[in-house]
Design brief:
The protein is an all-alpha fold and 406 residues long. It is built from 17 helices and no strands.
């Protein structure tokens, strides 16, 4: 007997998949911003040393770069949904390990946790392309907003939670709880069939073995990799060191954590306004200019009047960090299908994060050498200008291929 599809049931499944995607995204910055907010407390308690305190903020981008080299192959073998689930399990394990207040254990836990994050980071644009191909813009906005909310929540509450628990390292480990919930919902919500079994809209999310590996990358991949590298470099310096910059200016650790929360939270409403600017070349130019200008204003405020209106400067920096969802929409829409998006995403994020790894390390080293954040802030302003130049060049050369990504 033939069974006709139940539209209501299909809609419910679709909504459940979106919920699972949002819960996954909610966890993708918790490990990073909670660490940043607690760096002072971790150092004071001995859970980090002068050496490891410089290493930890640089771990995410370094791990993201390495993971990009193997994620596509892993997802081709396991299926993208299983691979994301595995990444979230690894994230959870790393977060739990950081409960041990030992410097190198905290570093190891951060490496493990961000390895899981890296896998999920790379594959989410392709998941959006495969499962929500006609709604790339809105779905990307939804999960980018969830990332901002999660990052802001961890940044603003990490210090009070750690104080309540009486341990900075336990304040890191507690963020494994939302990861466990996300894994459970993902396991029930997402289909587990291999991507290769789907037709074009759900074309392979990762390159299969054989000649496919030699397919040329979509046009604009390398320019987009450059833009992604600059936005990652700026973002991870700010996510890793903003609380330290604020406390050096005389603000309390609690307020410094709140500033990081403000910076991350502003991404939620700002993403809704920024992502639609990817639809046409003129709008893209406006978007790239707005993002760079906001970053420069925020950096200038922290440089010349750090205690005057710190929340305003943090909000400007948060608007500038909307370069990330902006780039995600461009990645999700690049090429002919989800397979192209996955291959381009792997290259873009590997190259981007490799270059961006230098940012947090260099920022920490410059501060230790000079005893000031002034030079770091000046370099951030220069980075925003470079990001703008790459964005405008990208608009000129690839707009025709990506303006349909919505």
């Amino acid at each position: 007997m033939n069974r006709t599809p139940d539209p209501a049931r299909s809609r419910s499944r679709w909504v459940f998949m979106i919920v699972a995607l949002v819960l996954i995204a909610l966890n993708l910055r918790l490990a990073i911003t909670s660490t940043s907010a607690l760096i002072t407390a971790l150092t004071a308690s001995g859970a980090l040393t002068d050496v490891t305190v410089v290493i930890v903020p640089a771990v995410p981008t370094a791990v993201f770069a390495v993971a990009g080299l193997s994620t596509a192959r892993l997802s081709a073998r396991l299926g993208v949904e299983r691979t994301i689930g595995l990444g979230m399990v690894v994230l959870t394990a790393g977060l739990l390990l950081r409960a041990i207040p030992s410097p190198w254990v905290v570093v190891a836990g951060t490496v493990i946790a961000t390895s899981g994050l890296a896998v999920v980071n790379i594959l989410l644009p392709a998941v959006v392309r495969a499962h929500f191909g006609r709604h790339i813009g809105p779905i990307t906005t939804a999960y980018s907003t969830a990332m901002s909310i999660g990052a802001a929540l961890a940044a603003a509450t990490a210090v009070p939670i750690a104080s309540a628990l009486g341990s900075a390292s336990m304040g890191l480990a507690v963020w494994a709880a939302p990861a466990v919930i996300a894994v459970a919902v993902w396991a029930f919500a997402m289909p587990l069939s291999r991507p290769a079994a789907r037709p074009d809209a759900g074309a392979p999310l990762a390159p299969a073995s054989g000649p496919r590996r030699r397919d040329p990358l979509p046009a604009g991949t390398w320019l987009l990799a450059g833009f992604f590298a600059m936005q990652s470099l700026l973002s991870y310096i700010l996510m890793g060191w903003l609380p330290s910059i604020a406390t050096s200016a005389g603000l309390s650790a609690e307020r410094a954590g709140i500033l990081l929360g403000v910076m991350m939270a502003i991404g939620a409403p700002a993403t809704v306004l920024i992502v639609p600017l990817t639809r046409t070349p003129i709008r893209m130019r406006v978007g790239f200019t707005l993002i760079a200008t906001a970053t420069i204003v925020g950096v200038a405020g922290l440089t010349f009047a750090p205690t005057a209106l710190p929340e305003v400067w943090a909000a400007c920096l948060g608007l500038g960090m909307c370069a990330f969802p902006f780039a995600l929409v461009l990645i999700a829409g690049i090429g002919r299908n989800a397979a192209d998006s996955a291959r381009a995403s792997s290259v873009i994020q590997s190259v981007g994060y490799t270059l961006a790894t230098l940012g947090p390390l260099a920022a920490g080293a410059i501060h230790q050498a000079t005893g000031s954040w002034t030079l770091v802030l000046g370099l951030l302003a220069c980075g925003a200008l470079a990001q703008l130049a790459l964005g405008l060049l990208l608009t000129r050369t690839t707009a025709a291929r990506v303006t349909g990504a919505e």
